[in-house]
Amino acid sequence: MGASQILEDINASVDFDHRLAQYDIEGSIAHAKMLEHVGILTAEDSAQIQSGLLQIAEEVSGGIFEFKRELEDVHMNVESRLQQIIGPAAGRLHTARSRNDQVALDFKMWTRAALESLDEQLSNVVDVLLQRAQQHHADIMPGFTHLQCAQPITFGHHLMAYVEMFLRDRSRVKDALARISECPLGAAALAGTSYPIDSQFTASALGFSRPCRNSIDAVSDRDFALDYLFTASTVSMHLSRLAEELIIWSTTQFGFARLPEQLTAGSSIMPQKRNPDPAELIRAKSARVFGNLQTLLVVLKGLPLAYFKDMQEDKEPVFDTADSLRLCLRAMTAIVEGLEVNTKRMRSDATSGFATATDLADWLVRGLGLPFREAHGITGRIVRLAEAAQLELHELTLEQMQTVDPRIQEDGLKALDVDRATAARLSAGGTSPVRVLEAIDEAKQRNTSRN
Ligand code: ARG
Hints:
The protein is mostly helical. The protein contains 19 helices and six strands. It has helices at 3-11, 14-17, 21-37, 43-61, 74-86, 99-135, 155-179, 199-205, 215-220, 223-249, 277-301, 315-338, 343-350, 357-368, 372-388, 398-404, 410-414, 418-423, 433-448, and strands at residues 140-145, 148-154, 182-183, 210-211, 257-258, 340-341. A two-stranded antiparallel ribbon has the order 1-2. Strands 3-4 form a two-stranded parallel sheet. The chain is elongated and about 100 Å long.
């Protein structure tokens, strides 16, 4: 293999950065308008350049643009095609610009759009979770810690925990969008330019609030991509935890829910199976998203200012993340929407496993004025008594309980009722159906007001 082929193979980025084409063209059109505005380009040249670029945009969106590897990257491909279409005037477009500020701009615009579409998908999954939470705001299930039955909660309350996570993710997106508002175009190679450009003109034309404040930072900064990858990683982690719960709930052993049949895979030999493949892949794809964040951090961490070709390795982790996350969010939204919930099974599990032991202890404190530690000890002995008799707490008679502590009265037994236990947890953010309905209303507002 000849040296020039080796160079092309290692240097070319067009195989992936062709995905920036639309933004490259948009940025170039704004740049041409600005050059005309400040008198660097004549109106004729500017018009020719713009119409050539629009033609290229159509070729790209129509899928007929021919990207060539020997032209290295998307920027050179677009420029060379412009040359073919309009001739020498094309050469004037690159005045007061470098590929360094150009690629920073394109990538920033791509990432901004990815953040916006992530936000929309997050608001969709929140909507669906809110609907399901409303439907199940008073349905009892066991709440777990250590995956051990802990206390009864409502299924709606459990789903609302994910609503909080995804709403926090939306606020992370919002923060990232606020920081992505500075336009790198005009930084040129790294030092700015001696041409009398109007950087605010291009910034405004491209939807940024202002130009970057430091030209060296403008071409060397990829924090916006890291912001995106970190936000995406947190979203993926949340999705993965939910996926894991769905997988557990849908086992025969738990039987809390069945995943929508179209979103499960059958087994070729075991006809009874509904394998949760999409949920498993949501869980697994979080790994590559975290890896992508790590990749970009490592690419950047040793680079002196300003630009190095290392930075060409910034795009694939972001593209791969966006592709994976888009799929995962679509899948999760559909799974939550179509989930078949077995409220009977959830409820019966909440009444077993001594889930209301804390409520008995609380009654001993409230009803008998005992210190909580003593109440905890008495309840522990009652639990052991029930275990020995192979009974649930609510199946013990008052007399049996009184063998542990004769002060216990009829009223104490009522504390073991799961509906009462749940309804009583009225503290802020608690599981009482009353609080859950309030939380749903409040979250609905946050979800529609774009935070
Ligand atoms: N394809 C390059 C990248 O993605 C564009 C910038 C090239 N700049 C340079 N000085 N070689 O980073």
